[in-house]
Amino acid sequence: MNTEKLQAQKNSTISAPAGLGKKIVKNDIGKGKGKKRLAGLSRWLHIYLSMVSFTILLFFAVTGLTLNHADWLTSGKELVTKDSGSVNLKWVNQADTSKINKLQLVEFLRDKHQVKGTLSDFRIDDRELSITFNGPGYVADSFIDRETGKYELSVTRMGVVAVINDLHKGRDSGKAWSWIIDISAILMTLVSISGIILICFIKKKRLSGFIIAGVGTIVCYLIYRLFVP
Question: Does the pTM of the predicted model rise above 0.85?
């Protein structure tokens, strides 16, 4: 009885063309491996890029808030200090202004008063010479009388919030910090792209994820179109 049933099952089986089934299986396996590799790579990039860039991303997120409400957080935080003195008259009392040693004057102020920041302005007129230094949350202005060599120095420090806001904007922060801004922008882009790729492999969350992303994009666009002057 069992022998007859087995024979009937064999007779009812339809065989596929030679080699066709094997090719389909191999192609499906190849595609499956490719998807798994892409999903694994996306997950790896998303996790480790997020960890590598955690501090800088958090910094730009927080400073985005402080920058948007700078008047709330920096009001009354400025500290202004003034000083005075005199420089060697030969350094500034030159008929030919091209002979004035600018570097010597700049280094004198840095050494004497610990002035920091980058030199942003150096002006010479008939009676006075002005030097300005700028840094994140920092301004130093010096005015030197060319006839007497006497000078006045005013240094303004605008507090920690002003410093981090200027760093957020890359203002007066130097070349090295501009590289940090570029690197952080690249990392944010890669984290976003890897996140989008990763959600494509999560079937239960894929549709809702794209819907939420689309809604967020539309809301931002509408706010821009309707409320931004």
Answer: no
